[in-house]
User: Which sequence fits this backbone?
């Protein structure tokens, strides 16, 4: 069973509907035991990093999620669900994340002359072979909405990159842990392919 973590923020229903479109059963839950017992776990997210971490801690969900990631079962982070995995974020001050992936979360430079947030379709360039990208052509377009981006400490964690004023990491792969900055559930055929690939891991 695929469990989509509910911590009071995020596009939960659209993620669930994305999995339903590819024939996978996904349930939305904030039950720590259900999270621990999942076959596959998805951490979506929309909103501010510090508020999301507060909600996850208040609901006692951080430990079950970390335990799941350490179990070797497939994990997928989406958008803020990618950023939360890192050591810390500079969004509204410095705030600690899950510390599951070494690195930081930084803001786009608002002096680049580009609109912030980075919103819309952009090209994703693969850095390494990653199971969730199976059958997807390098350079395919995905849908983004974000003002912050991750900077992994270990380059071997970088699965894909995108250009927006700078070249930034838009996907990571670390053992059984996968996470993307873009929204697969809003990225049409290629996004659904990621959900299919994840369901088949």
Assistant:
């Amino acid at each position: 069973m695929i469990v989509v973590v509910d911590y009071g923020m995020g596009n939960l229903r659209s993620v669930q509907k994305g999995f339903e479109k590819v024939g996978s059963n996904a349930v939305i839950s904030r039950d720590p035991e259900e999270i621990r017992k999942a076959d596959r776990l998805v951490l979506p997210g929309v909103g501010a990093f510090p508020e999301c971490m507060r909600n996850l801690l208040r609901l006692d969900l951080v430990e079950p999620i970390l335990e799941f990631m350490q179990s070797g079962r497939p994990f997928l982070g989406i958008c803020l669900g990618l950023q939360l995995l890192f050591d810390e974020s500079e969004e509204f001050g410095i705030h600690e994340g899950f510390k599951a992936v070494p690195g930081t979360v930084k803001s786009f430079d608002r002096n680049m002359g580009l609109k912030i947030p980075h919103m819309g379709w952009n090209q994703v360039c693969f850095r390494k072979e990653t199971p969730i990208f199976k059958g997807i052509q390098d350079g395919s377009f995905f849908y983004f909405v974000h003002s912050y981006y991750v900077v992994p400490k270990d380059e071997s964690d970088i699965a894909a990159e995108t250009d927006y004023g700078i070249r930034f990491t838009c996907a990571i792969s670390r053992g059984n842990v996968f996470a993307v900055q873009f929204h697969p559930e809003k990225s049409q055929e290629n996004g659904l392919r990621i959900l299919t690939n994840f369901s088949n891991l």
User: Anything to note?
Assistant: The chain has a mean pLDDT of 96. Residues 36 and 68 are 6 Å apart (CA to CA). The domain at 2-199 is CATH 3.40.50.880 (Rossmann fold).
